Amino acid sequence: MHALQYEITLPAGYDMGIVRDRVARRGHLLDDWDGLGLKAYLIRERGLRGSPVNQYAPFYLWNTVDGMNSFLWGGAFQGVADDFGRPSARQWTGLAYEEGDGAQARFAVRHRQPVPDGALLAEAVADAVGEVRRLAAQDGALCAAAAVDTSRWELVHFSLWESGAQDTPRADGEVFEVLHLSAPGRERLPRGRQW
User: Fold this and answer.
1) Residue ranges per domain, the chain?
2) How far is residue 178's CA from residue 43's CA, in Å, rounded to a whole number?
């Protein structure tokens, strides 16, 4: 499993309806993408759910590097670059993935944290795997994943939730609204720890 995310931060007064319309028109294009586990089309709106910015920030879990590379280099990602400029696309190596009991993704939570200097790597990763299990076991969780960027020694936890507007997902981190979920290979994402 591989994780990928790019963030497009937009001006404070940006009409987020433009992003909503774009996803409504184009989100289905990855609904059957070979090698894709899931893509969550995410936004944050300034002043909502603690967000200081307007942002479009899709998050991907890939089953295969071939599928990810086909997306990045085969033309699909060019549409993002053409519409918004070419963003930095962060990549993380998968550590763990678990399914929850939720039915429909309405929100996502992303939490990034450094692997502390001097930490025992096996312990840091075991904690990350345990957090994935804890998140996925919460009511309303669709799934949870953890991955690591070893060039920065940064862990990322990502979870999808069905919670309503009054409910807060039971995870720490930045909260995003899910506009669409493409999940052609979600059932093939490997469960549990990834080694």
Assistant:
1) 2-186
2) 7
